[in-house]
Write a structure and sequence with these properties.
- The chain is of the alpha+beta class and 139 residues long.
- Helix content is 32%, strand content 34%.
- The strands form two sheets. A four-stranded antiparallel β-sheet has the order 2-6-5-4, covered by helices on one side.
- A hairpin with a 7-residue loop joins strand 4 and strand 5.
- Helix 2 packs antiparallel against helix 3.
- The longest helix has 17 residues.
- The chain starts with a strand and ends with a strand.
Length: 139
């Protein structure tokens, strides 16, 4: 039995058009010349559940669980909508782009995934899921 672990999360990959728009926004924000570790636009994604350090043996059951959850889902559309900061603008740690559109579908899927992952031994989130795309982290 292997003890190999990987850092894992469950996410929705963005379209190429969305990644290009993220790149444009990041390039515009860089002009403010603030110490921020910017995300690479090609790797920006919508995280639904952070799993942390996961044993490789668990990946198959995680994958099967996700297939069951997503099989019944219908396509949805979300839009980038506004820029914000966590925990708040007065003391930002993370800059993000908000989402609008079918975000209720995204929230529902994230909740279902969170519950399913708790059934597989992963910690259940205590805070409300807030769909966003991370642009950068303040240094």
């Amino acid at each position: 039995m292997s003890n190999d672990k990987i850092r894992a999360f469950i996410a929705i990959e963005l379209s190429d058009e969305a990644k290009q728009e993220i790149e444009r926004v990041i390039e515009e924000l860089k002009k403010a010349n603030v110490l921020i570790r910017w995300a690479k636009s090609k790797t920006v994604h919508l995280t639904l559940k952070f799993l942390g350090s996961v044993e490789e043996e668990k990946l198959a059951s995680i994958s099967e669980t996700l297939k069951k959850i997503t099989k019944e889902r219908t396509p949805f559309e979300i839009n980038m909508d506004g820029i914000g900061a966590f925990p708040e603008w007065s003391r930002p740690k993370v800059l993000w782009v908000g989402l609008s559109g079918d975000d209720s579908e995204v929230r529902s899927m994230a909740d279902e995934i969170g519950s399913a992952m708790a059934g597989l031994g992963f910690e259940k989130e205590n805070k409300e899921f807030r769909p966003h795309l991370t642009l950068g982290r303040v240094k």
